């Protein structure tokens, strides 16, 4: 064997059965607490007035009933993997807190180098250097442990979802098979399960990102005084852009998934009836139909890629724009930009860079995972 065996806790035989049992328990509890609808007498005149809206009301009520009768995937995942969730939160919190120690040690080290009045205090320089190394070491260990936990958690969730979809696919009756084709089930096990896994990798950024931004702005305020308000203003101006792009991304994601499901459904029908298709020489006609569906899917993919590229470019430039605005206002207000303040501010801006860049991406991943689930 060229690979080592998986640990027992990460095997599908260990992960999938509890997940399916949790899902069945949630379904049974929903069915047990569901109330039968009450029928109220309606006058004929009122019924005639509401006849035009009957179809929409039935559709709306059926969609709401379907959502209410579906168990929450997030609750089941947290109930099954809550220990790994909390462990990942702990490692992430340790990493986020320790990374702000480095700029403070850098401030002390630069201050020690600039201070020429005490040339005999060499031990302070060694202490600061060793402390920076120790802090970086602890931060690296915490960060790597965090990624190990979240990647393992993502693989477990992906395995559980694939196993549940596969087990349900084996129990489908003929009527259900007409509604859910093999292509749709393959799409669930490949694309949607992968998106859930990708989301779990950086999901903690939803709370860690704002925390890092607040702490970084606090230290920046102590370093650059009120000039940091210029950088805060730039970030506030970027928030509406984030919300606008997120809405467009969700719409594009829904359209893309719909087009992909249609294409997979068509391909499944073609493969099932390939003998009849060959017999009547319908290859060209069906090829045009599949190409049309594929072009529609590629159109949505292209628009989504353009949107993601512009989104990534904007928020990659965000830390630079924030630092530029802050330094410019700080110098223009008559303050002296020393090496200590500049390097510490740049270090804090580098910390600020990750949440500013990753938070929008995590929001988009959350939207995609919500559509997939």
TrEMBL record:
<keyword id="KW-0547">Nucleotide-binding</keyword>
<dbReference type="GO" id="GO:0005774">
    <property type="term" value="C:vacuolar membrane"/>
</dbReference>
<dbReference type="InterPro" id="IPR050173">
    <property type="entry name" value="ABC_transporter_C-like"/>
</dbReference>
<dbReference type="GO" id="GO:0140359">
    <property type="term" value="F:ABC-type transporter activity"/>
</dbReference>
<feature type="domain" description="ABC transmembrane type-1">
    <location>
        <begin position="86"/>
        <end position="368"/>
    </location>
</feature>
<feature type="transmembrane region" description="Helical">
    <location>
        <begin position="226"/>
        <end position="245"/>
    </location>
</feature>
<keyword id="KW-1133">Transmembrane helix</keyword>
<feature type="transmembrane region" description="Helical">
    <location>
        <begin position="149"/>
        <end position="171"/>
    </location>
</feature>
<keyword id="KW-0926">Vacuole</keyword>
<dbReference type="GO" id="GO:0005524">
    <property type="term" value="F:ATP binding"/>
</dbReference>
<dbReference type="InterPro" id="IPR036640">
    <property type="entry name" value="ABC1_TM_sf"/>
</dbReference>
<dbReference type="InterPro" id="IPR011527">
    <property type="entry name" value="ABC1_TM_dom"/>
</dbReference>
<keyword id="KW-0813">Transport</keyword>
<keyword id="KW-0067">ATP-binding</keyword>
<feature type="transmembrane region" description="Helical">
    <location>
        <begin position="199"/>
        <end position="220"/>
    </location>
</feature>
<feature type="transmembrane region" description="Helical">
    <location>
        <begin position="125"/>
        <end position="143"/>
    </location>
</feature>
<dbReference type="GO" id="GO:0000323">
    <property type="term" value="C:lytic vacuole"/>
</dbReference>
<protein>
    <submittedName>
        <fullName>Multidrug resistance-associated protein 1</fullName>
    </submittedName>
</protein>
<keyword id="KW-0472">Membrane</keyword>
<keyword id="KW-0677">Repeat</keyword>
<dbReference type="Pfam" id="PF00664">
    <property type="entry name" value="ABC_membrane"/>
</dbReference>
<feature type="transmembrane region" description="Helical">
    <location>
        <begin position="342"/>
        <end position="367"/>
    </location>
</feature>
<keyword id="KW-0812">Transmembrane</keyword>
<feature type="transmembrane region" description="Helical">
    <location>
        <begin position="306"/>
        <end position="330"/>
    </location>
</feature>
